[in-house]
Write a structure and sequence with these properties.
Largest sheet: 5 strands, parallel
Number of strands: 10
Strand content: 15-25%
Strand order of the largest sheet: 2-1-3-4-5
Helix content: 40-55%
Order of helices and strands: EHEHEHEHEHEEHHHEEEHH
Radius of gyration: 36 Å
């Protein structure tokens, strides 16, 4: 859309309706419209390729296409184009179905006036832009989650997995589809299930809970993970489920076990050294004490 000029393509085979629309757009205040017209769907599709069109006014019943199929074909060929359906009183239900399929709005011929038409065009373009930005934003976040090194999973209110990303599926040796709809308890032990239920306390709106958990992989081996969980609630407080992010800390746990074992070995060696030292000191000390004192102190 050029500044202050909106290019409108009307696909309508009734010249009288086209003249009425053209005159209405001339009377619109604050917006300048450039109107193009073709009388059938195939010509409309060609125009969309050649011209920079901002919005489409579409009659559903054309010489080469009829009914909801007209909208579906156009929407498939121009998914980012805002479309307003033009319909007669007898076809209003058909227009409503087109809106349900993705059209931005519908207008009933004979009930349109200049400012209504101008506002409908303006709002349709804005809604389509918002839809596009939302799709782009959703796609961006979906890619971030899919590509994340951390595992991400969603559970519903019954602890069934409704989403898992590739990272967690790969970590546990499953495919994504093998994990979906399964209860989370299928991937942990009794203690893990107790921990999950504790941190997903449905009566308290806990946020950002972080805890260690053991998850069972497909080969029956446990992996240690650090989990951060956020419960999800409706506005009325109804518990919906939870989103969790986890990282694999199995390597860290292995290092911790090695350190503990090393410290334990070190302590045992120290006790042995101390015992040897005492044995070596006994004869020296024995000479300094009477027998009773010796046994009181070292026996």
């Amino acid at each position: 859309m050029r500044e202050n000029i909106t290019n409108v393509l009307i696909i309508e085979d009734n010249p009288g309706d086209v003249i009425i629309i053209r005159e209405m757009l001339k009377d619109a205040v604050g917006i300048h419209f450039n109107l193009l017209n073709v009388g059938n769907l195939s010509d409309g599709l060609k125009i969309l390729v050649k011209e920079d069109i901002d919005i489409l006014l579409l009659d559903l019943n054309l010489p080469d296409s009829h009914g909801i199929d007209t909208f579906i074909k156009m929407n498939q060929n121009a998914p980012n184009m805002p479309i307003i359906i033009l319909t007669g009183l007898t076809d209003e239900e058909l227009a409503i179905n087109a809106v349900a399929e993705g059209a931005q709005d519908y207008l009933v011929k004979g009930q349109i006036e200049s400012q209504l038409l101008a506002k409908s065009i303006k709002y349709a373009i804005e809604r389509k832009n918002i839809e596009r930005k939302l799709r782009e934003s959703e796609e961006k976040y979906r890619l971030i989650v899919e590509k994340a090194q951390s595992g991400v999973f969603l559970m519903n209110s019954n602890n069934k997995l409704t989403y898992v990303n590739q990272s967690i599926a790969k970590m546990l040796g499953y495919t994504v589809s093998e994990m979906l709809k399964k209860d989370i308890s299928n991937f942990t032990d009794r203690r893990g299930e107790e921990l999950i239920n504790y941190y997903l306390n449905k009566t308290e709106k806990l946020t950002g809970q972080t805890y260690e958990l053991k998850l069972l992989n497909k080969q029956g081996v446990f992996s240690h993970v650090l989990v951060s969980t956020n419960p999800l609630f409706k506005a009325d407080g109804t518990y919906l489920g939870a989103i969790s992010i986890l990282i694999d800390i199995s390597s860290r746990k292995s290092v911790e076990r090695s350190l503990v074992n090393a410290l334990k070995d070190k302590d045992e060696n120290l006790f042995l050294i101390m015992g040897s030292m005492i044995e070596a000191m006994k004869p020296l000390i024995q000479n300094e004490y009477k027998e009773e004192e010796y046994f009181d102190k070292f026996a």
